[in-house]
Recover the amino acids of this structure.
């Protein structure tokens, strides 16, 4: 990981009063195919927003519209990026953003340093300023030793770091990362996560699309799931997980004499007589845990181990996009205590 990247997290950070990206009834169609069917977005500045969805769901189309690469349908509502209306001031919006796609924009025939200096020229930086910015970013992303080598010799992770470094030459306050870790090994992906956290700690807003659900879980302040051109659900990772049934509290006993009365009392719990465990449906909230603990205390039941299990984002994704067999009926966590 680059030495300047601190392993901090953006999770739990309160929303800022400023909105970096907003869109109302965003629509995009190609002929008879509707890709985006009136989605609404509001992304606070200085946060990570992750857009999830199956392949072909429209994630990249949304990024292209918000980054001014393509136009939305005329029926779309207002779209603002960095405070600028894309319909009337797209050029100002472009000056506030950077875009890194799933396919690297790095030129492999020239060195990493030359790639950086090329971006500095494109941003019309004076020569001395361009060299200073390039050197600082190469050091920031741990690429100084490789700066004089052709980018074609870089590993996948190094190319992605260089790609983001090039994006930062213009000091954008909003960055679109379209599947930035696709094809990277686990170590390089974790390095990229550290880079994203560092960007946000500096106040940058990150709009992330990813095919790795644990990546969104790890990084995003808010997550939206795109399906059939619409936002199927949006919220924090924990809020989305609570939408899906399957959460439970697991009680484990070592003494059969303690297990048997507990199993008799908790008639609606799922029993495992061999493992001496009981599973009580629960959404995992603090209120539910207090209710379960209070009931156990009142009943004089003492388990040797209590663990909380909640659905993960895979469960959420499959349930919302029709990709799995997860039930969409709501949890009824208190039934086992009746």
């Amino acid at each position: 990981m680059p030495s300047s990247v601190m392993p901090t997290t953006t999770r739990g950070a309160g929303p800022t009063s400023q909105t970096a990206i907003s869109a109302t009834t965003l629509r995009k169609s190609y002929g008879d195919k509707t890709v985006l069917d009136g989605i609404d977005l509001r992304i606070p500045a200085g946060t990570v927003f992750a857009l999830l969805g199956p392949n072909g769901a429209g994630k990249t189309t949304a990024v292209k519209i918000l980054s001014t690469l393509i136009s939305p349908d005329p029926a779309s509502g207002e779209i603002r990026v960095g405070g600028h209306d894309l319909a009337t001031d797209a050029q100002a919006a472009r000056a506030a953003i950077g875009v890194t796609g799933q396919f690297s924009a790095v030129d492999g025939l020239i060195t990493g340093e030359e790639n950086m200096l090329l971006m500095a020229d494109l941003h019309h930086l004076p020569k001395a300023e361009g060299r200073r910015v390039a050197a600082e970013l190469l050091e920031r992303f741990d690429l100084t030793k490789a700066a004089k080598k052709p980018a074609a010799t870089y590993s996948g992770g190094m190319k992605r770091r260089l790609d983001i470094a090039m994006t930062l030459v213009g000091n954008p306050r909003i960055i679109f990362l379209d599947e930035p870790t696709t094809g990277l090994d686990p170590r390089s992906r974790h390095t990229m996560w550290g880079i994203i956290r560092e960007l946000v700690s500096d106040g940058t807003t990150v709009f992330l699309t990813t095919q790795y659900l644990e990546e969104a879980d790890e990084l995003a302040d808010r997550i939206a799931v795109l399906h059939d051109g619409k936002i199927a659900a949006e919220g924090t990772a924990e809020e989305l997980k609570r939408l899906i049934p399957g959460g439970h509290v697991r009680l484990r006993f070592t003494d059969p004499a303690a297990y048997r009365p507990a199993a008799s009392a908790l008639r609606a719990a799922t029993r495992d007589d061999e493992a001496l465990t009981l599973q009580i449906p629960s959404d995992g909230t603090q209120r539910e845990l207090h209710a379960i603990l209070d009931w156990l205390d009142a009943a004089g039941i003492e388990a040797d181990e209590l663990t909380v299990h909640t659905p993960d984002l895979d469960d959420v994704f499959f349930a919302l996009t029709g990709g799995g067999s997860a039930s969409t009926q709501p949890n009824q966590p208190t039934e086992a205590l009746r």
